[in-house]
Structure formats: structure tokens, C-alpha cells
UniProtKB/TrEMBL annotation:
<protein>
    <recommendedName>
        <fullName>Protein p34</fullName>
    </recommendedName>
</protein>
<dbReference type="InterPro" id="IPR027470">
    <property type="entry name" value="Cation_efflux_CTD"/>
</dbReference>
<dbReference type="GO" id="GO:0015341">
    <property type="term" value="F:zinc efflux antiporter activity"/>
</dbReference>
<dbReference type="InterPro" id="IPR027469">
    <property type="entry name" value="Cation_efflux_TMD_sf"/>
</dbReference>
<feature type="domain" description="Cation efflux protein transmembrane">
    <location>
        <begin position="7"/>
        <end position="198"/>
    </location>
</feature>
<dbReference type="GO" id="GO:0015093">
    <property type="term" value="F:ferrous iron transmembrane transporter activity"/>
</dbReference>
<feature type="transmembrane region" description="Helical">
    <location>
        <begin position="37"/>
        <end position="57"/>
    </location>
</feature>
<dbReference type="InterPro" id="IPR058533">
    <property type="entry name" value="Cation_efflux_TM"/>
</dbReference>
<dbReference type="GO" id="GO:0015086">
    <property type="term" value="F:cadmium ion transmembrane transporter activity"/>
</dbReference>
<dbReference type="InterPro" id="IPR002524">
    <property type="entry name" value="Cation_efflux"/>
</dbReference>
<keyword id="KW-0813">Transport</keyword>
<keyword id="KW-0472">Membrane</keyword>
<comment type="similarity">
    <text>Belongs to the cation diffusion facilitator (CDF) transporter (TC 2.A.4) family.</text>
</comment>
<keyword id="KW-0812">Transmembrane</keyword>
<dbReference type="InterPro" id="IPR036837">
    <property type="entry name" value="Cation_efflux_CTD_sf"/>
</dbReference>
<dbReference type="GO" id="GO:0005886">
    <property type="term" value="C:plasma membrane"/>
</dbReference>
<dbReference type="Pfam" id="PF16916">
    <property type="entry name" value="ZT_dimer"/>
</dbReference>
Length: 292
């Protein structure tokens, strides 16, 4: 929550600096950079709301919790990144056919550079902490800021080249190239978010670890089958059928399940495990073999 609120404060600070840089120079590229920072503020607000909703406990209407709220926020951020790229492309198009001399380019770049450094530091914090806390909203917000850093660096390079050569058309031309890069960044954020909304299975290495735990820690059972996984926010849902000998008591089967669940939660942080116990004649002989 503190990180999401910090993003909002950083967003306002960066927006102010970039707006000042544009006012000083009149550069179409710096105007485009400021437009993207406006989107940053909007998405920071969305991430803050999403994280608050995702933290709500499960209730009667949402028995699995509210974790997917973060995926909606991340999807919105991807869409906003693409909108920012289109706005930049629009400004670059106008500037390309009517290039103009930039006022106070060095002073403007110094102000914009301060905003870029602030953005770079904060996006590193967001991506690092977001991965540790397994928060899609924070990671998406960090990637969005990273695209903003790339934009700012490209804009600075374009202005410096234009200033050195007198080819002021480089200002909007390079801004357009950077906009294409931002479009790709927005698509990646949307793609990752949709995988969570569509209940995509966990990565193959995580799935392999889950299978290994079941195979080695379910001593006394026969096999496991119909393993299913999905992730929602920081929570990973794991469910499967565990086949036990017909003579095993309910208490003994429950003890085996507790052992497997405990081990799975050590391997997969924030795992939610559901195990359906079945008698031996239900074995499919196509799932996970339990090793004694």
C-alpha cells in the first residue's frame, strides 16, 4: 500500500518537472513525455485502488478472495501505456511536418533529466518489491515507469541531436520511434495480465516443483491425478486428487494431506491447496506416482 501511494507522489512530482521542461523549451518531444507522465498519475491511482481491493478478505460473494483486482489494474495500465504512445505519435506527427526551433534546450533537458532519474529509481523499487511481494499491479506500474524512462532518454537524445545539427525535425522523429517502443511495452503488460485473468497455469518450473513435492511427500498414498494450478495476484491455487489405499483411515489420509499441503506451501509462497481424497479403485495410473 505504501509503495502504491509512493507511486502517486512520485507521479505528481515527475509530471510537474516534465511540464516545466516543456514550458521552458516548447519541444514537442518534451510535451509528449509530459503527456505520458499524466497517464502515470492515472495508473498510479488505479494501482492504489486495486491493491486495497485485493487485500480485502474473502467474503460470501468472493469466497476465493479479491486477488484478481490487481490483474484488472495491470490491464488498465497496459491500455493506458498504449494510449500514451498514441498521444505521443499524434504530437510527433504534427511536429514532423512543422518543426520548430527549441528554446533553452540544455536547461530544459536538465529539468527533464531530474524527472528521469527520479522515475528510474522508483521503477526499480516497484519492480523489485513487486516481484518479492508477487504483486502484478506493482510490477505493471514499475514497467510502465520503465517505459517512461526509455521515452525520456530517447527524447533527450533527439533534442541533443537536433541542437547539435540544427535538424529540428529530429525532435518529433525520435519521439515517434520511442512511441513504437512504448506500444510494445503496453502490449506485454496486457498479455501478462490477461494470463492471470484467464486462469493460466503456473510456469513449468513451478509445476515441476509441485509435482516433485506431491511425489516425495505424500508417503502412504498411491498416486495423484487431475492436478490443476492457477494464480490470482500473489496467491497460487493448487488442487488435485490424491488416491490412497482403501484400508487407510480418514485420520491417516488427513495426516498425509496435511503433510503435502505444508510442504507445498514451503515451495510455493502464498499457496492455496485443495486436495480431494479418493480410494484406490479410483486410480487413473496416468498422474503423479507417489514414491515411498
Amino acid at each position: 500500500m505504501k509503495l502504491a501511494f509512493g507511486s502517486l507522489l512520485v507521479g505528481f512530482a515527475v509530471l510537474g518537472l516534465k511540464a516545466l521542461a516543456w514550458w521552458m523549451t516548447g519541444s514537442v518531444a518534451l510535451l509528449s513525455d509530459a503527456l505520458e507522465s499524466t497517464v502515470n498519475v492515472v495508473t498510479a491511482i488505479a494501482a492504489l485502488i486495486a491493491i486495497r481491493v485485493a487485500a480485502l478478505p474473502a467474503d460470501a460473494n468472493h469466497p476465493y478472495g479479491h486477488h484478481k483486482a490487481e490483474f484488472f489494474s495491470a490491464t488498465l495500465e497496459g491500455v493506458m501505456i498504449i494510449i500514451a504512445a498514441m498521444l505521443i505519435m499524434h504530437q510527433a506527427y504534427g511536429g514532423f511536418f512543422a518543426p520548430k526551433v527549441i528554446d533553452a534546450p540544455i536547461e530544459g533537458l536538465l529539468v527533464n533529466g531530474g524527472a528521469t532519474v527520479l522515475n528510474a529509481l522508483w521503477c526499480w523499487v516497484l519492480i523489485t518489491r513487486g516481484r518479492v511481494e508477487r504483486s502484478p499491479a506493482l510490477v505493471a506500474d514499475g514497467r510502465h515507469l520503465l517505459s517512461d524512462v526509455v521515452t525520456s532518454c530517447g527524447v533527450a537524445l533527439g533534442i541533443l541531436l537536433a541542437y547539435a545539427t540544427g535538424w529540428w525535425v529530429l525532435d518529433p522523429a525520435l519521439a515517434a520511434l520511442v512511441a513504437v517502443n512504448i506500444l510494445w511495452s503496453g502490449w506485454k503488460v496486457i498479455r501478462d495480465s490477461l494470463s492471470g485473468l484467464l486462469d493460466e497455469a503456473v510456469p513449468e518450473d513451478t509445476l515441476k516443483a509441485i509435482r516433485e513435492v506431491i511425489s516425495t511427500k505424500a508417503g502412504g498414498a498411491v498416486e495423484a491425478h487431475d492436478l490443476r494450478t492457477r494464480h490470482a495476484g500473489k496467491v497460487t491455487f493448487i488442487d488435485f486428487h490424491l488416491v490412497v489405499p482403501g484400508e487407510m483411515s480418514v485420520a491417516e489420509a488427513h495426516e498425509v494431506c496435511d503433510q503435502v499441503e505444508h510442504c507445498l506451501k514451503e515451495v510455493v509462497i502464498d499457496a492455496n491447496v485443495t486436495i480431494h481424497v479418493e480410494p484406490e479403485f479410483k486410480a487413473k495410473h496416468t498422474g503423479i506416482i507417489v514414491l515411498d
